[in-house]
TrEMBL record:
The organism of origin for this protein: Rhizophagus irregularis (strain DAOM 197198w) (Glomus intraradices)
Cellular compartments per GO CC: mitochondrial matrix
Protein name (record): Alpha-ketoglutarate-dependent dioxygenase AlkB-like domain-containing protein
GO biological process, one term: fatty acid metabolic process
Residue ranges of the TM segments: none
Record-linked InterPro entries: AlkB-like_sf (IPR037151), ALKBH7-like (IPR032870)
Length: 200
């Protein structure tokens, strides 16, 4: 995977975080990352926490592509949950609250043209970047405005795989990644609409 990530940096406008070499991050990447809590990482934590495994693609999707994906995602949620916008109060593991979520195996009810347009967009902007990876089905997650959220957690690899790729749509958010054995050792990243992020 590291070879693939290095290849990304040479081809795309990306910002990756490698905590061992955070002093070399450019000023343009620092607008997205807050590294104020990782400058004095204990050496015994460094190997597991230092990552070239978080990559941010700012403005990866155009405004038109964002609007298209947002519309199709909300339509999919409406087909799954009905016309009324009802948010689930809590996830089964209590990590997510006030949300709607669904798995996508198909995007439409038989509209092959739209289905093909979505698949082409995702192939071009996501899947082709990782040509050797077998992907799990897409999950759409919508958080209720102001009250929806995701609590600190460690992803279940059996459920999510060991690589997570996310697309941020509609509104910006801040993701905080924290060392499991040292909660004070953390960094945060600004995810703006249209960005693509990769973590493992």
């Amino acid at each position: 995977m590291k070879g693939i990530l290095n290849h990304f940096r040479s081809r795309y406008n990306t910002f990756s975080l490698n905590c061992r070499y955070n002093s070399s991050l450019s000023s343009s990447s620092l607008q997205y990352f807050d590294l104020s809590h990782i400058h004095s990482i204990p050496s015994n934590l460094t190997p597991k926490f230092c990552i070239t495994d978080f990559i941010l693609f700012p403005d990866h999707f155009t405004l038109r592509e964002q609007a298209f994906l947002t519309t199709r995602s909300l339509e999919k949620l409406k087909r799954v949950f009905g016309k009324r916008t009802i948010y689930q109060p809590s996830h089964f593991d209590h990590v997510i609250h006030n949300y709607r979520e669904c798995q996508v195996t198909s995007w439409t009810n038989g509209d092959n043209e739209i289905e093909q347009e979505i698949n082409d967009l995702l192939d071009n902007k996501v899947y082709n970047l990782f040509s050797k990876i077998k992907w799990l089905p897409i999950h759409i997650l919508e958080l209720a405005e102001s009250i929806g959220g995701i609590k600190p957690h460690v992803d279940n690899i059996e459920y999510s795989g060991n690589i997570v790729v996310g697309i941020c749509l509609i509104s910006p958010t801040v993701m905080i990644l924290r060392h499991i054995n040292n909660p004070e050792c953390k960094f945060s990243v600004l995810l703006e609409p249209g960005c693509l992020y990769v973590q493992r």
